[in-house]
Write a structure and sequence with these properties.
about 50% helix; single chain; Rossmann fold; about 450 residues; alpha/beta; 2 domains; 21 helices; N-utilizing Substance Protein B Homolog, Chain A; four-stranded antiparallel sheet
């Protein structure tokens, strides 16, 4: 497993010191070093786990070393994260976790640093996970809960407030724990392009719980599947499928309708909505600010019948002709705090002040979407964040009529509206639905 550990170390170093993204970098590293199967799984768990849990691990390292981990050489700090994770969260014998960490530090920083790492890791292996949590995060305060589950305190607080607004006070522990559980890989079987049963067969997977298009993979590489390779299917979280599909399910589709995906990159929702539009003889414009992401949208929609989807490059806050669209999906740029299961480093990169830029942008996008919506038209405002400042508080400023989004979600999922909260909004949760924490508001322009 030494090569697997080296690859995990390289990934975590690049993410923590060079701004790399683990979900983009690690697959490249696995392919480069030809790690597959058990070795690839070990590497992924080690890298993602160390990145995800670094907040808790820093507290443990500080207690075990008597030093602030931020003062350590990056190579030493990263190696210790990996060592602590192997001991506390993986089936690695204590002596192996110590030895591998010491060897890594020796190669990177020399004998003196290796002696320090040896002393720290030997102290770390004196306790198990529960023992260390009792030392560094005792009690049930918000701060202790955040540290115990390795979330920045402001993130944990924002999540707890969102839960309270949804009538789920007291569920913070479950949600924070779910954020640390790797998300399953889910595919969307785009309607009219591939049957879900056929995709289940290709993937040796199983049907998703809620979305009529979802297929959950047991493992492997999705890109190797024929339906994914030709664009008939794609990787897409089940929650993303539900909230996008709700816009189409909210009312019958009239032939010739014009739809708009206002922030379309990288193209997951455009791919699903384009397929649905083709079946209903509707047309979808997909707008993306950045040219390279617009190319991703074109690639994502390549299997949709020609003439259905048109990809544009432009600024969603100003683009477009007034009252031109019957349905608009606005999947607004957001903090992404609803997808912490998938992006292990993102919780540590976000800052509260990020909302000072994101929220005004979300409001400008929503205002332009209102302008672009035809009388009687429908607008789905979506974020991959449960944070109230990005969800309810943005929608509170709209001039549109707020509809009960539960009806549309129930229509997509074959359930009853009451299953989706108190309304009128729908907020999905990792610990409840097994999806990303997607928010949906369904709005209508008065005729």
């Amino acid at each position: 497993m030494s090569r697997a550990r080296d690859v995990a170390y390289g990934c975590v170093m690049a993410v923590s010191t060079e701004g790399a993204y683990a979900n983009l970098l690690l697959p490249q590293l696995l392919a480069k070093h030809r790690l597959e199967g058990r070795d690839a799984g070990f590497t992924t768990e080690l890298a993602y786990g160390a990145l995800r849990m670094r907040g808790l691990y820093d507290a443990i390292i500080a207690k075990a070393s008597g030093r602030d981990p931020q003062d350590l050489d990056p190579e030493v700090r990263v190696a210790l994260w990996l060592g602590v994770h192997q001991h506390l969260a993986m089936r690695v014998p204590p002596h192996a976790a110590v030895n591998e960490t010491v060897d890594q530090v020796r190669r990177e920083r020399g004998q003196g640093a290796a002696k320090f790492a040896n002393a720290v890791m030997r102290r770390v292996t004196e306790r198990d996970h529960a023992g260390w949590v009792a030392v560094v995060a005792p009690g049930d305060s918000r701060a202790a809960r955040a540290l115990r589950h390795s979330h920045p305190e402001w993130v944990a607080n924002a999540i707890e407030e969102a839960l309270g607004a949804e009538g789920r006070a007291g569920e913070a522990e479950g949600l924070l724990e779910a954020d640390n559980t790797p998300a399953r890989v889910t595919l969307v079987a785009r309607p009219g392009l591939v049957d879900r049963e056929e995709l289940v067969r290709q993937a040796h997977g199983e049907a998703g719980e809620y979305s009529p298009w979802a297929v959950v993979l047991p493992g492997g590489r999705p890109g190797d599947l024929p339906a994914v390779a030709d664009g008939a299917a794609a990787v897409q979280d089940e929650g993303s499928q539900i909230v996008a599909g709700a816009l189409a399910a909210a009312r019958d589709i009239e032939p010739g309708e014009r739809w708009l995906d206002l922030c379309a990159g990288p193209g997951g929702k455009a791919g699903l909505l384009g397929a649905i539009a083709a079946e209903g003889v509707a047309y979808l414009d997909a707008l993306e600010l950045h040219p390279h992401r617009a190319d991703l949208v074109r690639d994502s929609t390549r299997a949709v019948p020609e003439g259905t989807v048109t990809v544009h490059t432009g600024d969603g806050t100003t683009w477009g002709e007034s009252e031109a669209y019957d349905r608009i999906v606005l999947d607004a740029p957001c903090s992404g705090l609803g997808a912490l299961r998938r992006r292990p480093e993102s919780r540590w990169r976000r800052r509260p002040e990020d909302l000072d830029e994101l929220v005004p942008l979300q409001k400008r996008l929503l205002a332009n979407a209102e302008r672009l919506l035809a009388p009687g038209g429908l607008l789905a405002y979506i974020t991959c964040s449960p944070v109230l400042a990005e969800t309810r508080e943005v929608v509170a400023g709209t001039t549109l009529t707020v509809l009960d989004a539960r009806d549309a979600v129930a229509a997509v999922t074959g359930t009853v509206p009451q299953a989706w909260g108190a309304g009128p909004f729908v907020q999905l949760w990792p610990h409840v639905h097994g999806t990303d924490a997607m928010f949906l508001a369904l709005l209508e322009k008065p005729a």
